[in-house]
Structures are given as C-alpha cells and as structure tokens.
Amino acid sequence: MTIPPTAIAVRDLSLTFQTGDGPVHALSHIDLTVEKGDFVSFIGPSGCGKTTLLRVIADLERATSGTITVNGTTPEQARLARAYGYVFQAAGLYPWRTIAANVALPLEIMGLPKAERAARVAKNLALVNLAGFENKYPWQLSGGMQQRASIARALALEPDLLLMDEPFGALDEIVRDHLNEQLLKLWAGTAKTVVFVTHSIPEAVYLSTKIVVMSPRPGRIEDVIVSDLPRERPLEIRETPEFLALAHRVREGLRAGHSYED
C-alpha cells in the first residue's frame, strides 16, 4: 500500500505565551501528521489551543519549541508561497466591495492580470454555488452565503491546503448542515487537504477522515481517530451505528482530556 505524501508534520511542538500575569502554556508536546488529501478536524474545549495550532500551521503564531513543516517547508515559506487558504470564523468581507471584488482582493494583492483574476473569481464562486451573485454586496447575502464567499476567496489562491477556523460556528443548524454537505462535495471535487477547527462532535465526525481530540490547556492531543466512514456521506449517515460509535469515541476522548485539567 502506497503511503500518501505528508502535508503537515508536527513534532514535539509546544507554545507558551508570555503575558503580564505570567506564562500561558497554550500547546504542549504536539505530535501530528496530516497526509495530503486528508480532512482533519481539531476538536476540544474552549481555550484548548485548537485555533492556536491552526495559526501555527499558518505562520500566524510561532512555536516555542519543536518543529513543524507544511508541504515540506517551514510555515513561513508556505505562507510566502501562498500554499494555503485561511477561512476565519467571521467571513471578513469588505462591505463596500462586491462579492466578486472581495474574492478577487488577494489576487489583486498578488498582482495577477485582470483576465486571470476574473477567471479565478468565476470558477471559485461557481464551486461554492454563488455564480450569479458576483455583483451583490455582502449585506445583501445571508450569513451562510457570506461564508461561502469567504471560502471562495481562500480557494482563489489555488492552495493545496485549506485552513478553516470554525467557519460555520455562528450559523443555525439547518444552514450549517447544508454547508457541511457542500464542503464535503467541494473537498471531494478539489482533492484539497483541509484542516478544520470545530466545537461540534457531529460536525467533526461527519466531515473528517481524521479527528484530533485535544485536552484542556495546555493543549495536548488526547486521541487521533481515523474515520472508516465512506467518503460520500449523506446527512442520514449520522443516524448509523458506525457514525454514533465514532461520536462516542470522540466524546470519551474529550472526557478523558479533562483529567489533565488543573
């Protein structure tokens, strides 16, 4: 069996923030491998370091010790090479720019020719089912549509890696379910590697090929659960014994992690 190439390799990584009240140990001795084509979710209690670990991958935070590579390079080199797209909790669209202009913004910063920008914008808005909304403004779109536009903006960079920090956390359950379905189809159609932060056990199990369960701060990896669910997943799969067994294992990992809490 061929071993897939590694997208992210984290070895004995720790991160401590220095604050006026003393050091804050955010991450402790993290070891993790993300293979190309994986859909990996980080799940854990608030403050456990899920987003901090995502930000280390993105070179938005620097580890205190240990090593990390992204596509075989340092996070800084990956960032400069625009090897990843980052989707934040809030869509972060500029209200005075149309949806097309928002998606095109990073391409303008890159200095791409106008024709190539237009082609990428059209392609990626179509991928997230927003074709026809190019000339709308963010305030004319629902919250779910705004997040889809944010995903299109990240995809417009044509990255191998998509980093997503609780992008659907503020949306209602019906919209969230719909976007989860769309995200799975998008992932299947583009073969991207996705790293996804969530607080939701059903969301983590539904989306992921691999679920990373983290303990309370200082964030440690309590369990790495490899999913044996099929790649094609209708929402109804959440009622199956296989799904419920995975959700139970995630829940047990979260409970076990609390034994570390001070």
TrEMBL record:
InterPro entries referenced in this protein's UniProt entry, alphabetically: AAA+_ATPase, ABC_transporter-like_ATP-bd, ABC_transporter-like_CS, ABC_transporter_ATP-bind, P-loop_NTPase
By its UniProt entry, which Gene3D superfamilies does this protein fall under? P-loop containing nucleotide triphosphate hydrolases
Q: Which PROSITE patterns match?
A: ABC_TRANSPORTER_1, ABC_TRANSPORTER_2
Top-tier EC class: hydrolase
Q: Which CDD domains match?
A: ABC_NrtD_SsuB_transporters
Q: What is its EC number?
A: 3.6.3.36
Extract one GO molecular function annotation from the record.
ATP hydrolysis activity
Instruction: Cite the ABC transporter domain residue spans from the record.
Output: 10-241
**SUPFAM superfamilies under this entry?**
P-loop containing nucleoside triphosphate hydrolases (SSF52540)
Q: Does the keyword Plastid apply?
A: no
- Keyword Nucleotide-binding in annotation: yes
Q: Which UniProt keywords apply?
A: ATP-binding, Hydrolase, Nucleotide-binding, Transport
Membership in a protein family:
Belongs to the ABC transporter superfamily.
What is this protein's name?
Taurine import ATP-binding protein TauB
**What taxonomic ancestry is recorded?**
Bacteria, Pseudomonadati, Pseudomonadota, Alphaproteobacteria, Hyphomicrobiales
Q: Which gene encodes it?
A: tauB
